[in-house]
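Annotated sample (chain length 236).
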Amino acid sequence: MKRWIGKAVMVAAFALGAGSASAQQCVGFGDVLASDTLVCPAVEWIKNRGVTLGCQGGANYCPNDPVLRSSMALFMQRLGKALSSEIHKDHVTEFNATIPGESPTPPLLLCAMAGNSTVTPYPRQALLNAAVTGLADGSSVAWRAYWIYSTDGGATFGPIMDGVNPISTARASSAVNQWSGVALSFALDLPANTPLQVRVVVRRDNILTGTTGNFADARCQMTVNIVNANGTTSPL
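Output written by the structure step:
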């Protein structure tokens, strides 16, 4: 087996393995022609996902240079990470939880990602799913659950909003000593180079009179699956 293969050949193999990319203007490298509708989209695809960092200080791609086997290993490792999803899971149980009122009172935190998602140079999508259940104490309960998230490394958190209302604000209520529950799901678009932390929180819901109880037992299960937002196509 030869110890090197041309970069153009390797890029074509990546493109075929990941799916066809639509022709578009190349950016980032000064030595790849936009008129090359086979190589140009593939080069941009692997550049946007950090598979290649370029050559000559990153200004060029050097399409005719050979690839060492050591470099090929790095390319393949980066490609695998770009095509793999991140899965974050959390399962929390709380007892005798007091359901807080409206803002500025801090909401009750039920589920939270353990840490930031991996920061990548390409856009992604976070598929959020959670189930929250609560057992009412000696009084009836009415409550709502929703997502809050941070894209600045956990410095600030806010709800996912649709205008003035939080998205996925699922409501539930139950009588004394009864369980109630809600399911939450949302697809959150992430720009390139953006970390993510997600939490599920609960507040009291005052739409029903006399529901002033709290949770004798509260449980939450959450899964955050982060995938390449563009699938096998090049980002715009």
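Annotation: Residues 69-83 form the longest helix (15 residues).
Annotation: Confidence is low (pLDDT under 50) at residues 1-5, 11-25, 232-236.
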